[in-house]
Design goal:
Aminotransferase_I/II_large; 13 strands; alpha/beta; Aspartate Aminotransferase, domain 2; PyrdxlP-dep_Trfase_major; two-stranded antiparallel ribbon; seven-stranded mixed β-sheet; globular
Length: 464
Amino acid sequence: MARLQSTEIEALRAAAPPLPLTIAPSVSSDLYKSPYTRAKPPAKRFDDHFSIESRNFSGSALKKGSSPSGPRKIISLGTGRPTADYYPWESITLGEAPPVPTIKTTTKPNLHLPNRQENGHSAHTIAKNGATYNLSIALNYCLANGSAHLLRFITEHVELVHNPPYADWATFLSCGATAATEAAFRIFCDRGDTVVAEQYTYPGTLESADLNGVRVYGIEMDANGLRPDVLDEVLSSWNDAQSPKPRVLYTIPTGQNPTGASQHLERRRAIYEVAEKHDLIIIEDDPYYFLRMGPYYDHDQDANGSASADDKAARIFHTESIPSYLTLDTAGRVVRIDSASKILAPGLRAGWVTASRQIIDKFTAYQEVSTLAVSGPSQLMLWHLLDENWGHDGFTAWLVDLSREYRWRRDVLLGACNYYLPRKIVQWNAPEFGMFLWVKIDWRQHPQLESSSELSLEEVGAQI
């Protein structure tokens, strides 16, 4: 089936309605999807998967009065928005890097960058007034879905990369992956419910679940991540009399935190089949998806990334790509969480969530009465960098180069592990994605084990 290509973006935008010029216009990712999506079937509805709380999510009454367009000279008197005349900032200047730096790492990390002119950086000033997306708009209120300019780019990005196989998918801008995960627990879980996840997972997720009164049941893992056979066995033998059967799977499928494991394509398909069998919602928390480093070869410097040429880095990036759960999702049961934190900067507190329209409406309604929206300056910075400066091809080039840089750093770390750590008592698997190396130490091999108590070992820094 035909799908959107980056070369079609310009024509797609030309055929679409113009971007709204009002403050906090009502926008939807539906406005920015390509015609290819219309030929796809609709997603399944998941009414019975929503929590008691989220079934009553109705959003903000004030936000419902927002219109998608309108004359710029009309001033709304009903929402309490301050006038931009009294904002104490007149402009903001952004020094932005090119998508591929002119100075690259080959034999050592580029830790001391020269000034931005020498390194290909460019400075752009955005004034309070004038442009269609200016500082006065960014500093004002914004609807939960996000600014039209940035939402358009992110919607295009999702279709280019993931191409969800159903028609009524939607994307909205979240205040980072942690906020999106917390919202997902509220949307799908009642207090006392259980979520299944990898047996080792991100502590912030465990704490967010605990905050919402949700128990996390760990599923056994292997070198390729969560085991689908164990997941199926646990769910098939679940005792409903003790607690309600889980209806949500939370997973970090790529460069898993903290183990570094990545689910290959067949593993993802097998897990998705289990989710279909047991009617699970899959929360796909995937902040490391674009950090693609490829295999590591012990004692083979040329085969590793420290001497990679640019074409090799690009080849690794594209060949190591694994289809996301969103790409495999024929039913609309996947909630994909993306983040700007690991690929741009964590202080932006920005990301995006993609799921069926029915599910995204719940996220939007919750965000309208909680965090409201991603910070306006963060959205402005992201839009100007990604859309005005880089474009979709430039963004991909940035991700290729970023993966190459992290590949170099991973190889240095693994080289040190090979040299300094004794294989007799230490084991690890080289991560091909992400930021985590999971090192297993057989503490039973400690020479003082028989003569020392656990307490005395802990006193010298050994955690058991």
